Amino acid sequence: MDKIVALCKRRGFIFQSSEIYGGINGFWDYGPAGAELKRNIKDAWWNDVVRSRTDVVGIDGAIICHPRVWEASGHTTAFSDPMVDCKKCKGRWRADQLPDTKCPEGGPHDYTEARQFNLMFESHAGPIKDEDNKVYLRPETAQIIFAQFNNVLSVARQKIPFGIAQIGKAFRNEINPRNFTFRSREFEQMELEFFIQPGTDAEWHQTWVAERLKWYSTIGLPAAKLSCYTYKKEELAHYASACVDVMFEFPFGVQELEGIAARGNFDLSQHQKFSGKSLEYFDDETKAKYIPHVVEPSAGVDRIALALICSAYTEEEIAPGDVRIVMKFAPRIAPVKVAVFPLLRNKPPLVEKAREVFKLLQPHFNTEWDDRGNVGKRYRYQDEQGTPWCVTVDFDTLGEKGPELLDTVTLRDRDTMKQERVKIADLVPLITAKLRG
Ligand code: ATP
Q1: Helices vs. strands in the chain: H and E counts, helices first
Q2: Among the four given CATH numbers 3.40.50.800, 3.30.2130.30, 3.30.70.20, 3.90.470.10, the one describing domain 336-436
Q3: The whole model's pTM is what?
């Protein structure tokens, strides 16, 4: 992990939040490459889960909502982790995640009894800081979907089965943020609530588990590192009939990326009870009236970004003692798709031509201009950023070696390091075809 964390800083994927002030535990900032990576993950999810389906619509809800939402969902009373302290060193941990190290004060840790710690961040809406104005930063995006069920149903021209999706920030005051960004206090979720007829829970649950597993291969996570954990009956929440976690083999162990739960009608029933508003659905074909059940695939953007970074990281010895670090992202997810270089930065005709090529590519792909150092160094930089293709404009492009190479460039492939001579006019269709795989 140390090498990965170092690369993340060096190449602008992830920085410690407010690092110049010593950082703050559990919060991270994404740099230029990381911001693009995250955006690509979210776009891929939104495209595949919302836009390319006819039975899912999206919303974009507020981070702060009426505190009754969290009473209805059970978060104010039950969203807590058991916490213990060591009486000697004053260290604090989740009771189910105790350290395997000795106490720095000597001997084993001397733990207090476990006590429950609610993970929701609190704030106040308005100038008066009292109980009446208390609000919470949402610990998940899902409840905003349930609370808006009626409004969405009335506008979305959908019938059950259909889903409502949302991507957005969530906040949990984790006792022990750890494993880099894996367990953070601020993170992003991509959640789908797929509303179904009661009794169809098992089949829809299986459908979504299969769909979601398939999706991970489309963003380039290797199947060999993915697995599923199926909850045993006694591990399920009292209202849930099934739950499967999609797990990924991180360098620090096999851990959850996404949970897919069949939650019955618990959430809508609770909101109906607490709001006094009917959340029943009327099926105009069967004339049946019921509170819909739901299957919820809930994924974490930051965990997926970290999984992609961990699986992309590759060290290759290309000559004795010469190790190339390359981030082998799937092109679809790579932060920058193509980098354009003039062979030399101090030759105006080369720079001018390269600028033309850059302008040609930029409307089609996320394209980066790079004229620092020599071409070899630029390749290494782009390899560490995971850029699948580099285009170099050289003297041949200007026709200096003869007219047959005029207006051709070298297109270099990140993974094979092979270079091919390509006509500038062919670049857009060629890279488009490569991107489509
Ligand atoms: P865990 O058991 O790891 O705490 P969870 O089961 O509480 O996770 P869910 O409530 O199911 O997580 O949240 C759905 C998804 O949100 C998780 O699969 C994960 O990807 C993401 N997530 C949850 N907590 C965090 C966190 N503290 N930091 C980053 N991502 C998180």
Answers
A1: 12, 23
A2: 3.40.50.800
A3: 0.93
